[in-house]
Design brief:
Elements lengths: L10 H12 L6 H11 L5 H13 L4 E3 L7 E3 L6 E5 L5 E4 L7 H9 L9 E4 L2 H6 L2
Parallel strand pairs: 3-5
Antiparallel strand pairs: 1-2, 3-4
Helix pairs in contact: 1-2, 1-3, 2-3
Length: 133
């Protein structure tokens, strides 16, 4: 997989990639580092950061700018929306498909060429609701 992107197929990169695509929690760099460090105890935070940036640049994962203080990563490359808990900060995918073409509508209405979009929903997650938050 990495070869078609002209990337070296290192054990570190494979483990970092696997960590992001197998996570449903949209991990931060620190989350990935903590989990990868269990498999590779001598890995540095800088190595994790650089590899995440490379994987994102090559389109193998997505960086999501939901939390302005931390970068989060998403291994789900399909078009989907996110919902963020305002209490605990948890980020989940919303299991609905986009039913209308926002881009076409906006381009027609504004004459802009739309290059991307980011739509998030905010609420309180079931765990926080059950805690009485």
């Amino acid at each position: 997989m990495f070869k078609k992107h002209n990337l070296r197929n290192t054990d570190q990169r494979k483990i970092i990639y696997k960590e992001v695509i197998s996570s449903k929690s949209h991990p931060t760099t620190d989350d990935v580092y903590k989990n990868v460090k269990e498999e590779i105890p001598n890995i540095s935070l800088g190595t994790v950061y650089r590899n995440l940036e490379i994987l994102e640049k090559e389109g193998l994962i997505k960086k999501i700018d939901i939390d302005k203080s931390k970068k989060r990563y998403d291994g789900n490359l399909s078009k989907h929306f996110h919902i963020i808990c305002l209490k605990c900060g948890k980020v989940d995918d919303i299991g609905i498909k986009e039913k209308c073409s926002f881009n076409d509508y906006i381009e027609t209405d504004t004459d802009y060429k739309i290059l991307g979009r980011q739509i998030e929903f905010y609420g309180i997650c079931p765990e926080c609701l059950n805690k009485g938050n």
